[in-house]
Amino acid sequence: MQTVTLNNGVEMPVLGFGVYQIPGEDTERAVSEALAAGYRLLDTAAAYGNEEAVGRAIRSSGIARGDLFVTTKLWVQDAPAEENTRRAFESSLSKLGLDHLDLYLMHQPFGDVYGQWRAMEALNRAGATRAIGVANFYPDRLVDLILHNEIAPQVNQIETHPFFQRADYQVLMREHGVQIQSWGGFAEGRNDLFTNPLLAEIGKEHGKSVAQVVLRWLTQRGVIAIPKSVRAERMAENIEVFDFRLTDEQMARIATLDTGSSLFFDHRDPKMVALLGGHRLDA
Ligand code: NAP
Question: pTM of the predicted model, to two decimals?
Answer without folding.
Answer: 0.98
